[in-house]
Amino acid sequence: MKLLVRNLSRATTEQDLRTLFTAHGKVTTCNLVLDKDTGLSKGFAFVEMPNDIESRSAIKALNQLSVDKSKIRVKYADE
What is the dihedral of CA 31, 9, 68, 17, to 10 degrees? Predict the structure, then answer.
């Protein structure tokens, strides 16, 4: 399942996200979206988890969690 992670702090790295989500199951891809001009985070990312039960667990555990002083939002990404 492809998940959308929003409201990320500019300080949050792709590795930080991978670590957060791996605690809830297997992560196949983790892509932090960066600004082409500045190379800085745009504040959102996509995480893919192949197992539906694990992805639901990640959403339940991580949605509204404070990460780097920002309350992140996690939901299924619209395909």
Answer: -10
